[in-house]
Structure formats: structure tokens, C-alpha cells
Design brief:
Exocyst complex component 5, Sec10_HB, mainly alpha, Methane Monooxygenase Hydroxylase, Chain G, domain 1, 25 helices, 697 residues, single chain
């Protein structure tokens, strides 16, 4: 434990008699002082003793350090001597090794010719047997020594190639015959070993056959037997992958060039099995069923490329990517050359059929409606001519737009884009994608949406029609929804195919032209607002009576607002809701502002047609208050402001003559033209009184 002086002194005092109150003893300072002095002396003696011991140990340590340093110096000297001896030994070993190598070279120089001579002698002996026509050597008669016989006959076969034919034709023929027999035996042995699954024997025989001309035949036999029983299921691609996986593990144990053998197996699978399978699947539908043909082509090409991706894991040589690409191309080249023509032809006929089936279900015969250019349509908008795009027709509430048709067209196009991406050559991909996009524009935008807009425009009733049904807003609503789907497909499926090509600007321009043309035609549907205002006029003309604002009994008016006001507000609210559901974005505010301004003008002009008693003026104010409440649904500041001002003007119909000037100078009426104020004051029944005229003048 660490030494603490205070605690040490406390313990010393506690042990000293008279040093504390222990046992009732009185405190004795002298005795305690004496004890402290004695203890200090003891500590000093102990300190001196310890100090002497420390000095002795230090001297001993210094002595041992000197001895150790001396010993280290002696070891260093002996190490230097040993290192010198080692260098001398190393030089001696190098000298001896040089002599041994020189001697080995000399021995080899003598032994190699001797071995060659022995080998030549043996070959001459075997050659003589062929000359004599009788093979007596055990190596030729013993079937277990087929490996040695193969080595000998292979060398004799090479020698025989150099001999003149006229003198050695017979022996050359015998050697060639034996060469062929041994080669056949080896291949048969390899085949038997493969069937028994003896990998070591297969490897041994393959190594012997490596120097024979029939080595390639051995590889062919191996490839053929590998495929026996490998393609029993319906999925030839999965079978091929499993087969290659199995062979890849085995081929390295059998052949010295496994990548070449595996590549040859894959080539055989592609050129025989897959090519026949693809041909059977495609030729069946090529001329009779374009839809099934395209589906099969896409599926087969995709599965073939997926198989190729799996095979990339194996060692097939240096450029396996190019090797596999060429194999795929050799299978599909005849089908891919005219793919896009088949695709466009199918897409065109399929889209036309979808549209025709829809119109037939509606018992509708498509009308040939001439469509002018965008500039022509803009001119008609500018002049606000209300000319229909052909004879007016009754659509019976049908918009001639179908979500089902649109989904079918977009689905067909989506599949076409996917096939185009997979089957087109990279250099042709943007061009082919643009052609598919053009088909979508033709049938979805022109033949369906544009036709519905044209028909809707032609079906817009005139503004003076009674009980007109405004179906054009339904057309707008559906066209807006459909175009969002069209735009989504443009971004999701077309853009990735053309994003890095010059076709991008061409597609964007085509899309822009379509949008602009449709917007112009939608703008032409502004005539629908005239119909709405016309319906409001009919309601007001039919429901508003002159006695509403000049009742016979001023003291017995029980209604809060007129029946005409109730029906007009109900109609307006429905139309506002319909517009909001039919459009989106800024288009909603633009159309509602136009409708609100026209609605205000109608009510303003309508109120100018009547004379107002005091109670009638109050009723007119109530009507305008209801109209203003209806105007709040527009959520357009300008429209609400117009009705606020109109409400203030209606106050002029009931205000006391003495207060007219004060009301006219109010915040809402101060900026209005005096003629407008005067026109409302003139509507009062009591306007002719001199008192009122005097106050307003």
C-alpha cells in the first residue's frame, strides 16, 4: 500500500502509552515526545543501513556491467572470425559446384548421344520387324503395353514419312496401318473409360493420343458422350447450363487443354442443339402468327444471352466474349435482320385491331374528319369563330376515349420497346425505337385521342341550345389522364433507348408538336363555356319573373332569394366541379377565370333588365350574395372581387336617398365609372322622384 505519513504517525501515537485516551489513561505529552524522538532515531539508523546496502548493490551492478561488456566484445570478435570462415567455405562450395556442373554437362554431352543411339537402335529393331512383316516384340503383342506401343508407332510413323515411297511403300503401309489400329484402340479405350467414369484412365489415354492425328476425334467422342442423356427435360437452356457446369469440373482433370475442349463443347451445343431448338420454335409461327413469333424470338434470345452470361464464368480462352457473341449471332442472324419490320407490321395491325374492336363495341363508324395544321387551328382560336370541324353530331354522351384501349396500346408498345432493346443492334436501336414511338403516336395520339377531341369539338352544342349536355369536358378529363400515361411511357421506356443519340431531339420535337396540337384543340373547346352561359341564360329567362324584384305586397315577402338564383348557383357549382375534375395545373385556373368573368357579366346584364322596389332590391342583394358565395368556389381572386363590387352596386337599390352620395364614395364603388353607378340607381322604382334625382345629381 502507498505510504501516508499522517496515518503512520496516528498509528504510532495510538500504540504509545499515554499517547491518547485509550483505556482511560490520561494524555502524557512528554512520554509521546520521547517515543517520537526514539522512533526518529530508529528510522535514521534504518535509513543509513538501507543506504549502505544500496551503495553496495550499485557497485556490484557496475562491476557486472563491465564484465558483460567485455564478454560482448569477445563474442563479436569470435563472430567475425566465424563469418570469415563462412565466406571461405562459401567460396569453396561455389568452386566445387562449378566443377560439378561442368562435369554434369560433360556427362550429359556423352549420355545424350548414347541415349539417342539406344533409342535409334530400338526403333531400328522395331522397324526391322515391320520390314520382315512379323511383329514379335512384346510391346506390340501385349495389350497392356499399349501406351509404350503407341509411343513407338508414333515415332516410326514420323520416320516413315521421310522415307522414299518407291522402296519403302510396303513398310510405310504397315506402319500406317498399325498407327491407325492403335489410334482406334486408344479412342475405344478412352470411350470405355469415360463410360466407366475412370477419370485417371481417361487422362492417361488422352495424354497418349495428344500426339496422334486422331486427338481431335477423341475430343469429339468425349463431347458426344457428355451430351448423352443431358437433354431430357423441356428446358434445353437449363440443361445446357447444367451440362457445361458438370463438364467444366471434369475437363481439367482429363485434358491438357481444357479451355479448348470446353469451348468446342459449347460451340457444339449452340450450333446443334440450340440452333435446332430455336428453328423449331420460330419457323412454326414465322409466317402465320407474328405475335407468337415475336414473343418466342424475344424469349429465346433472352434465354440464350442469359445462358451466355452463365458460360462467361468458365475459362474459354482469351476472348470468350467475342466467341460467345459470334455463336449467338450465328443462331439468330436470319431472324434479327428483319426483326424491326416484323415488329412494326405487327404493332400496326394489332393497334388498328384494338381501336376497331373498341369502335365496333360502341357501334360507331369512324368519321373522316379533316384536320388542319396547327397554325390553322390557332387562327380559328384567335378569331373566336364558332365553326364546327364538320357537321354537328350527337355523341350521346360518349367520349370515344377508353382507358382499356389506352392500356392495351401502351402495353403492346411497352413490350415492343423491350423487344427492341433486346433484339436491335446497338447502332440501330435509336432508329428502331423511334419507329415504334411513331406507331404509338399514330394510333394512340392521332387515331384515338385526336379523333375523340375532333368528335367532341364537333359535338359541342351552340350557345342557344336548350338542355345541352356538355360532354366535351369529359373528353378533356380522359384525354388529360391518357396523356399522362403516354408521357410516363415516353420517360420510362423510350428515353433510356434514345437518350444518347440524335434521335432524342427528334422524339422530343414530335412529342412537343403533339402536345401543342392537342392544346390548341382543347382551347377550341372554350366554346363549352358559351354553352354553360347559354344554359344559365335559359334558367334565368325561364325562372326569373319581373314580380320577383317588384312584389305586389312589399310586407309579405317570405323567400330569402329567388328560385332562378338557386337553380343558377346549383348549375354553376356542378360545372365548376366538373372543370376541376377534367383539368389540372394552371389550366383549371385559366378556364375558371374565363367562366367566372362571363358568369359575372351575365348576372350583371341580367340585373339591368329589372326595376326594383325597396323589398325587391333587398331580394336582389340576397341573390347577389348567393352568387358571390357560389363565386368563392372558383377560388379566383378576380372573380370574387367582381362579385363583391356587384354586391356593393346592389346596395344602391335600397339605400336611402340621403345616403346615396356617401355609399357611392365608399371603398368598393369610388373607382367605378359614374355612368355605371347611375345605371343602377335608375333601376329603382322611385328613381323618377325629384328628391332621389336631386340627391344623385
Amino acid at each position: 500500500e502507498p505510504f501516508v505519513a499522517d496515518e503512520y504517525i496516528e498509528r504510532l501515537a495510538w500504540r504509545t502509552p499515554g499517547g491518547g485516551s485509550r483505556g482511560g489513561e490520561a494524555f502524557d505529552p512528554k512520554r509521546l515526545l520521547e517515543e517520537f524522538v526514539n522512533h526518529i532515531q530508529e528510522l535514521q539508523v534504518m535509513d543509513e543501513r538501507i543506504q549502505r546496502k544500496v551503495e553496495k548493490l550499485e557497485q556490484q551492478c557496475q562491476k557486472e556491467a563491465k564484465e558483460f561488456a567485455k564478454k560482448v566484445q569477445e563474442l563479436q570478435k569470435s563472430n567475425q572470425v566465424a563469418f570469415q570462415h563462412f565466406q571461405e567455405l562459401d567460396e569453396h562450395i561455389s568452386y566445387v559446384a562449378t566443377k560439378v556442373c561442368h562435369l554434369g554437362d560433360q556427362l550429359e554431352g556423352v549420355n545424350t548421344p548414347r541415349q539417342r543411339a539406344v533409342e535409334a537402335q530400338k526403333l531400328m529393331k522395331y522397324f526391322n520387324e515391320f520390314l520382315d512383316g512379323e511383329l514379335k516384340s512384346d510391346v506390340f503383342t501385349n495389350s497392356e503395353k499399349i501406351k509404350e506401343a503407341a509411343d513407338i508407332i508414333q515415332k516410326l510413323h514420323l520416320i516413315a514419312q521421310e522415307l522414299p515411297f518407291d522402296r519403302f511403300s510396303e513398310v510405310k503401309s504397315k506402319i500406317a496401318s498399325k498407327y491407325h489400329d492403335l489410334e482406334c484402340q486408344l479412342i475405344q479405350e478412352f470411350t470405355s473409360a469415360q463410360r466407366r467414369g475412370e477419370i485417371s484412365r481417361m487422362r492417361e489415354v488422352a495424354a497418349v493420343l495428344l500426339h496422334f492425328k486422331g486427338y481431335s476425334h477423341c475430343v469429339d467422342v468425349y463431347i458426344k458422350q457428355c451430351q448423352e442423356g443431358a437433354f431430357l427435360r423441356n428446358d434445353v437452356f437449363e440443361d445446357a447450363a447444367v451440362l457445361c457446369q458438370r463438364v467444366n469440373k471434369q475437363v481439367g482433370e482429363v485434358f491438357s487443354n481444357p479451355e479448348t475442349v470446353l469451348a468446342k463443347l459449347i460451340q457444339n451445343i449452340f450450333e446443334v442443339k440450340l440452333q435446332c431448338y430455336v428453328k423449331d420454335q420460330l419457323e412454326e409461327h414465322r409466317k402465320s402468327d407474328a405475335e407468337q413469333y415475336l414473343k418466342n424470338l424475344y424469349d429465346l434470345y433472352t434465354r440464350t444471352t442469359n445462358l451466355s452470361s452463365k458460360l462467361m464464368e468458365f475459362n474459354l480462352g482469351t476472348d470468350k466474349q467475342t466467341f460467345l457473341s459470334k455463336l449467338i449471332k450465328s443462331i439468330f442472324i436470319s431472324y434479327l435482320e428483319n426483326y424491326i419490320e416484323v415488329e412494326i407490321g405487327y404493332l400496326k395491325s394489332r393497334s388498328a385491331m384494338i381501336l376497331q374492336r373498341y369502335y365496333d363495341s360502341k357501334n360507331h363508324q369512324k368519321r373522316s374528319i379533316g384536320t388542319g395544321g396547327i397554325q390553322d387551328l390557332k387562327e380559328r382560336i384567335r378569331q373566336r369563330t364558332n365553326l364546327p370541324l364538320g357537321p354537328s353530331i350527337d355523341t350521346h354522351g360518349e367520349t370515344f376515349l377508353s382507358q382499356e384501349v389506352v392500356v392495351n396500346l401502351l402495353q403492346e408498345t411497352k413490350q415492343a420497346f423491350e423487344r427492341c432493346h433486346r433484339l436491335s443492334d446497338p447502332s440501330d436501336l435509336p432508329k428502331n425505337a423511334f419507329r415504334i414511338f411513331s406507331m404509338l403516336v399514330e394510333f394512340l395520339c392521332t387515331e384515338h385521342i385526336d379523333y375523340a377531341l375532333e368528335t367532341g369539338l364537333a359535338g359541342i352544342p351552340s350557345s342557344d341550345s336548350k338542355n345541352a349536355n356538355l360532354y366535351f369536358l369529359d373528353v378533356v378529363h380522359q384525354a388529360n389522364t391518357i396523356f399522362h400515361l403516354f408521357d410516363k411511357q415516353f420517360n420510362d421506356h423510350l428515353m433510356p433507348l434514345i437518350s444518347s443519340s440524335p434521335k432524342l431531339s427528334e422524339c422530343l420535337q414530335k412529342k412537343k408538336d403533339i402536345i401543342e396540337q392537342m392544346e390548341v384543340k382543347l382551347d377550341m373547346g372554350i366554346d363549352t363555356l358559351n354553352c354553360m352561359i347559354g344554359q344559365m341564360k335559359h334558367i334565368l329567362a325561364a325562372e326569373q319573373k319581373k314580380t320577383d324584384f317588384k312584389p305586389e305586397d312589399e310586407n309579405n315577402v317570405l323567400i330569402q332569394y329567388t328560385n332562378a338564383c338557386v337553380k343558377v348557383c346549383g348549375y354553376v357549382r356542378k360545372q365548376v366541379e366538373k372543370i376541376r375534375n377534367s383539368m389540372d395545373g394552371k389550366n383549371v385556373d385559366t378556364v375558371l377565370m374565363e367562366l367566372g368573368v362571363r358568369f359575372h357579366r351575365l348576372i350583371y346584364e341580367h340585373l339591368q333588365q329589372y326595376s326594383y322596389s325597396c323589398m325587391g332590391g333587398m331580394l336582389a342583394i340576397c341573390d347577389v350574395a348567393e352568387y358571390r358565395k357560389c363565386a368563392k368556389d372558383f377560388k379566383i381572386a378576380l372573380v370574387l372581387q367582381l362579385f363583391d363590387t356587384l354586391h356593393a352596386l346592389c346596395n344602391l337599390l335600397v339605400v336611402a336617398p340621403d345616403n346615396l352620395k356617401q355609399v357611392c364614395s365608399g371603398e368598393q364603388l369610388a373607382n367605378l365609372d359614374k355612368n355605371i353607378l347611375h345605371s343602377f340607381v335608375q333601376l329603382r322604382v322611385d328613381y323618377r322622384s325629384a328628391r332621389l334625382a336631386r340627391h344623385f345629381s
